[in-house]
């Protein structure tokens, strides 16, 4: 229900927007496509913007994996560039974030977005393990490739049906009185997810520093992640003007997820700095290598002429 999703929304507005004929809820003044997809009665511009921005965030994270998948496919050494700690903490953060969103009845767009995050994590982890096994083995195995294709295909099918089921279940969960212990557990999961998210960039920063290179990693992965995290946090904050009750209570309820999304952006700026710094180093090395073949033939030619001129 709308009152559960937006705790500051008045009961009068919610009652006016929802009528309940037998077997179905109808939203009178809400946006039909949002009602169908998210089971959410959105009746003002602020909530509408929240949903649209949240969908943009989801789109950014779905696109963010594609450049990295292509980069790993192009050089065939995805396991050397990516840190497994980065992927592990990212996946752990998304799992605990999903648990927290579900248990504390966060915005529907938050729940669905986290499901898409988990899907993109699985793609990156699958590719990492694929190249890890492939490059460590002395012979090629076609079975491994088909297993990866089957895994990605089945995950895509689950992805198409899971968000709708989650929103339906969470909507029915809101009609029941959630126990205090379940709600506390959800917020603990939310803050634990923030710790995982903030920790995820540290292994990748260290791996880049250790290699003194960002070769094999696509910057678009982190650039689109920054856009996704920024729009994710904005989708929560933009609801504030539509609230009738305490805005402070609303912020406290969503604080863990705001820390996890907006805090990671700061660390991604350090990753950006590494891409700029190490790219300069690699270009300097490349120019040195290119200058060597131009000098060597000249030196050899001078030596040869001096030998010919000697009596």
TrEMBL record:
Family (UniProt): Belongs to the laat-1 family.
InterPro entries recorded: LAAT-1, PQ-loop_rpt
A GO cellular-component term linked to this record: lysosomal membrane
Localization per record: Membrane
Organism name: Gymnodraco acuticeps
Keywords on record: Membrane, Transmembrane, Transmembrane helix
Entry protein name: Lysosomal amino acid transporter 1 homolog
One function term, GO molecular function aspect: L-lysine transmembrane transporter activity
Transmembrane segments: 45-63, 84-105, 111-131, 143-162, 182-198, 219-243, 255-278
Topological type in the membrane: Multi-pass membrane protein
């Amino acid at each position: 229900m709308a009152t559960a999703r937006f705790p500051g929304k008045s009961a009068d507005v919610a009652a006016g927007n929802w009528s309940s004929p037998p077997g179905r809820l109808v939203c009178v003044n809400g946006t039909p496509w949002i009602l169908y997809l998210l089971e959410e009665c959105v009746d003002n511009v602020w909530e509408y913007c929240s949903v649209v921005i949240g969908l943009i965030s989801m789109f950014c994270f779905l696109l963010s994996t594609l450049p990295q998948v292509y980069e790993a496919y192009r050089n065939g050494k995805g396991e050397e560039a990516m840190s497994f700690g980065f992927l592990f903490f990212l996946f752990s953060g998304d799992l605990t974030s999903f648990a927290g969103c579900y248990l504390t009845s966060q915005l529907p767009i938050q729940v669905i977005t986290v499901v898409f995050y988990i899907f993109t994590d699985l793609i990156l982890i699958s590719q990492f393990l694929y190249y890890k096994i492939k490059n460590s083995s002395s012979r090629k195995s076609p079975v491994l490739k088909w297993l990866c294709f089957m895994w990605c295909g089945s995950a895509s099918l689950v992805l198409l049906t899971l968000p709708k089921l989650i929103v339906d279940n969470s909507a029915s969960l809101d009609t029941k009185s959630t126990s205090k212990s379940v709600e506390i557990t959800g917020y603990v999961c939310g803050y634990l997810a923030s710790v995982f998210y903030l920790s995820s960039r540290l292994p990748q920063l260290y791996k880049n520093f250790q290699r003194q290179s960002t070769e094999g990693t696509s910057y678009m992965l982190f650039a689109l992640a920054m856009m996704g995290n920024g729009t994710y946090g904005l989708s929560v904050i933009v609801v504030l003007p539509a609230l009738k009750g305490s805005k402070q209570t609303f912020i406290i309820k969503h604080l863990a997820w705001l820390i996890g999304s907006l805090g990671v952006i700061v660390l991604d700026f350090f990753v950006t700095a590494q891409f700029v710094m190490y790219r300069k180093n690699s270009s300097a090395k490349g120019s040195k290598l290119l200058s060597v073949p131009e000098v060597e033939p000249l030196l050899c030619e001078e030596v040869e002429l001096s030998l010919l001129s000697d009596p």
